[in-house]
Amino acid sequence: MTMIDDLAERLRAGERRALARAITLVESARADHRAQAAELLAALGTAKQALRIGLSGTPGVGKSTFIEAFGLMLTAQGQRVAVLAVDPSSARSGGSILGDKTRMERLSRDELAFIRPSPSQTQLGGVARRTREAVALCEAAGFDVVLIETVGVGQSETVVAEMSDLFVLLLAPAGGDELQGVKRGIMEIADLILVNKADGELKSQALRTCADYAGALRLMRKRPEDPEGFPKAIAVSALETQGLDAAWGDMQTLINWRRDNGIWAARRRDQARFWFHEEVRVQLLARLRDDPAMRARLEAAEADVAAGRVLPSVAAAGVVDPAFPAKT
Ligand SMILES: Nc1nc2c(ncn2[C@@H]2O[C@H](COP(=O)(O)OP(=O)(O)O)[C@@H](O)[C@H]2O)c(=O)[nH]1
Ligand SMILES: [Mg+2]
Fold first, then answer.
1. Residues near 110 by Cβ (< 8 Å), separated by ≥ 6?
2. For the whole model, what pTM was predicted?
3. What is the pLDDT of residues 122-163, one digit of tens each?
4. Protein residue closest via CA to atom 17 of ligand 1
5. Residue 201 C-alpha to ligand 1 middle, in angstroms?
6. What 3-state DSSP class applies to 184?
7. What is the best residue among 68, 73, 239 to mutate for testing ligand 1's pocket, by most ligand atoms within 8 Å of CB?
8. Mean pLDDT highest for which of 79-93, 106-120, 292-306?
9. Average pLDDT over the chain, rounded to whole?
C-alpha cells in the first residue's frame, strides 16, 4: 500500500490526525506535495457531501464564540462538525489564531469536532483553492457539517459563499445609521443574518438592529433560491447560547426546501463549474508565468497596459496567441 493509499484509508475512517495531515498536504506549495495531494483527492472522490455553511463577520462580532457554542450544540446531537477558516489577513493579525484557540477550547477538545485555522498565506486565490480542497477532505472524512469562517476582508465573503450551501452573516448590534456600513453585496448573498450579542445591556439594541435588517431584507428583490420568509434576520446570543437552536432550525428549513426544489443540487453544479473555470484560468496563467519567454512577454504587456499604451484585450491577445500557435 502506498503512503497515499494509507492516508486515504485512515481519512475515510474519519481519523482526525489523517485529516490534519491531508490538509497540510493540500496547503503545501511544494511540487511533490501538490502531486501527492492530487493523487489523494482523486483517490477519495467526491461521493460524500456535508452541509457546507459559510459564516462571515467582522473581527469582534463573536464568530469564534458562536462557532464554539453552535458547534457544541451540533456535536451534542451526534453530528460531526469541521471548522475551516479563510482569513487572507491572518498573516498580519497573527494574534487572532491564539485568541480563537482559547475561545474554541471546548469544541477543539470535542471528539466529534475538527478545527483548522487558516494557513498563514495571504493570497486569496490560493486560499480559495486550499479551502475547497480542505472542504472535500472533511467530506471524505465523513463530517456532517463543515463551517467555513471568514472575516470578510476584500472578496473573501464572495469566495466563501461560492463554496457554501448556505451563507450566514454574523452582525453586532448597531446604532441606526450604522446599517449602511454593511455592504449591499453582502446583504445580497446572505441567507441568514444573525445579530449576535442579544443579551444583557445590548439586548434591546440587538433586537432593534435585527428588526432593521429584517426590514432591509424585505425590501430586497425576492430570490428564486429562497422559500417564503428568507433571507431572514434573527437575534442570537453566542455567549448565552440563546437562539442557536432557532438559527439551526432556520438553516434546516432553508436547506431542506432547496434540496426538495432541486436548488441545492443546481447550486453545487454551478459552483463546481465556476471553480473549474477559475482553476483553468489560474493554471493557464501559472503555466505562462513558468515559461521565461512567456513571463517576459506578460510583464512587458502589463507595463504597456499600465502606461495606457495598449488596451488590455489587445495586450492579452499578444501574450496568449503565441502560446497557441496556429497549426499548419
Ligand atoms: N455580550 C456578548 N458578547 C459576546 C457574544 N459573543 C461574543 N462576545 C464577545 O465579543 C468578543 C469577540 O468575540 P469573538 O468570538 O472572539 O469574535 P470574532 O473576532 O468574531 O471571532 C469577546 O469578548 C466575546 O466574549 C455574545 O453573544 N454576547
Ligand atoms: Mg475569531
1. 71, 72, 75, 81
2. 0.91
3. 555 577 888 999 999 999 999 999 999 998 776 788 889 999
4. 62
5. 14
6. helix
7. 239
8. 292-306
9. 89
How far does the chain reach from its first CA to its final CA, in angstroms?
Answer: 47
Share of the chain above pLDDT 70, in %: 90
Residue 118 corresponds to which amino acid?
S
Report whether pLDDT(99) > 60. Answer: no
Q: Quick one: CA dihedral 64, 65, 68, 74, positive or negative?
A: negative
Q: Is 14 exposed, middle or buried (0-12, 13-18, 19+ CB in 10 A)?
A: middle
pLDDT tens per residue across span 19-31: 999 999 998 888 8
Length of the chain: 328
- Residues whose Cβ atom is located within 5 A of ion ligand 2: 63-64, 100
The count of other CB atoms within 10 Å of the CB of residue 209 is 26
The answer to whether 159 and 128 are in contact (CB under 8 A) is yes
Q: Residue 10 to residues 79, 97, 133, 296: CA-CA distances in angstroms?
A: 19, 27, 17, 45
Strands of the chain, DSSP E: 51-56, 81-86, 113-116, 145-150, 166-171, 192-195, 232-235
Regarding the beta carbon of 172 and ligand 1, being less than 6 Å apart is answered no
Peptide bond into 312 cis (omega under 30): no
Query: Are the C-beta atoms of residues 228 and 236 closer than 8 Å to each other?
Result: no
| pLDDT tens digits, 253-298 | 999 999 999 999 999 999 999 999 999 998 899 889 999 999 999 9
CB 63 within 8 A of CB 168: no
